[in-house]
Amino acid sequence: MRPAVVTALLGLVLALTAATFDAEPLYVPAAAFVLLAVGAVAWVHVGSRRLEIARTVSARRVLEDDTVRIDIRVRTRSLALPAGLIEDPLLPAPAAIGAGRRTATVVIDARFARRGRKRLVEPSVIVRDPFGLAMRVVQGGGEAEVLVLPRIAKVVTPPGEGDGTGLAARRGRPSVAAEVDLDGLRPHRPGAPASRMYWPALARSGELVERRLRADTDTRPLVVLDPRGAAGDAPLDAAVRAAASLAVHMARDGGCALLLPGDRRPTVLEPTLAAWEHAHARLAVVTGVRGPNLAGLANRRGPVFYVAAAAPQRPPRALTHAPGGGRVLVIPGTMAGRRAIFTVAGCAAYELSGQRAAAEVA
C-alpha cells in the first residue's frame, strides 16, 4: 500500500499548497491524487475479499522424476477478477491473472528428483490495481504433501553372466539362490505334490519318499538395507534405489524378503507385490541414522543381498560366514580389484561367499 499512501500524501500536499498560496488550479490535481489512491485501495480490498483459491494435486505418491500435475484455480464471487499474479514455489515465475474474467487456472507439471516427503506450501495471489498503487497478498488452497518414492532401476549383469535383464540366473532366479531349500528326505505323505517326490530312492529301494523343504521364509532371498555412513545424499539415495530395485526384481521372480532399518523382522514380498506399496513408502523416508537389525542373519539359509550406503571396511560376519545360500554386498560405486556380479541403480554387487568370491580374492 506504500505507493497509494505516497500518492494520497502528494494530493494532500498539493491541496495544502493551493490553500496557502490561493492557487485554485492545484485543487484539481490534489483531488485527483487523493481519489486515485483511495480508489486503488478500495479496488484491492474488495477484489481480495472475494477471491477463492483452490489447489488440486493429481497424485499424493509419485516416483522420482515422474510428473505430478498440480492445478491452481482462482475464482471470484464478484463480477470479475482483479489484475494480479499467482505465485507458487513450483512456478518458474509468477503467472499473471487477466482482469475481466471470473476464473483463472494455472497448471504446474512438477517433478521431484529426490525421494522423501515434499511439503507444498499454500499458493498465493497478489491482487493489485491497474496502476500498481496498492497490493495485497491472499493465500489459500491449503498445504499439501507429496511422497516421492525411490524409482525402480533395471538390474544388469555383465556380458556372459546372464541375459542382461536381471541377475545371473538359473530359471530366472539369482545364481546365489540356487537350490538352498532341500532339508533331507521323509516318508511319502498322501496328497504331497509330485514335484516333491524323490524318484531316485524309488528306483533303488522301491520305497516312495519325498523331499523335505526348509521354511520358505528362511530360504527365500533377503534384501537388507544399511543406510549408515553415506558420504552424502547421492550415495544414500543410490543405495535405497538399489534395495528397492532388487526387492521388486526378486519378488516378481518368486518372492523375497526386505529388511529395513528399525525392523526386527523382514517384510515378506510375494510375486503379487501385495505388501510392496507399504514397503516402498517406507523406503522413501529412510534416513542414514539407524542401521538394520542383523540378529539371526548369520543362520539364514537363503541368499542375502546386503545393500550398504557406504563400503564397510570389514563386511559384517553374517555376510562372510554363511551356512547356506550366498552373501552379496551391494554398494554405491565400485570396489577396486573386484569384479561386480551385477549393477543396479548406480550400485555394484560383489559376492562375499562361495568359490567365486574366494577365487577373486586370491
Provide a quick synopsis of the model.
The protein is of the alpha+beta class and 362 residues long. It has eight helices and 22 strands. β12 (169-170) and β13 (173-174) form a beta hairpin.
Topology summary:
Elements: H1 2-21, H2 27-49, E1 51-57, E2 61-63, E3 67-76, E4 84-87, E5 95-97, E6 103-111, E7 116-120, E8 124-128, E9 135-139, E10 144-149, E11 155-156, E12 169-170, E13 173-174, E14 182-187, H3 199-205, E15 209-213, H4 216-219, E16 222-226, H5 233-252, E17 256-259, E18 267-269, H6 276-284, E19 304-308, H7 317-320, E20 327-332, E21 342-344, E22 347-351, H8 355-361
Parallel strand pairs: 2-10, 16-17, 16-19, 19-20
Antiparallel strand pairs: 1-3, 3-6, 4-5, 4-8, 7-10, 8-9, 11-21, 12-13, 14-15, 17-18, 20-22, 21-22
Helix pairs in contact: 1-2, 5-6
Task: Give your account of this protein's structure.
With 362 residues, the chain is α+β, with helices and mostly antiparallel strands. The chain folds into 4 domains: 40 residues; 102 residues, Immunoglobulin-like (Sandwich), CATH 2.60.40.10; 170 residues, no CATH class; 31 residues, no CATH class. The protein contains 8 helices and 22 strands. The strands form 6 sheets. Strands 11-21-22-20-19-16-17-18 form an 8-stranded mixed sheet. Strands 5-4-8-9 form a 4-stranded antiparallel sheet. The protein has a 3-stranded antiparallel sheet with strand order 1-3-6. A hairpin with a 7-residue loop joins strand 4 and strand 5. Helix 1 runs antiparallel to helix 2 and helix 5 runs antiparallel to helix 6. The N and C termini lie far apart (78 Å).
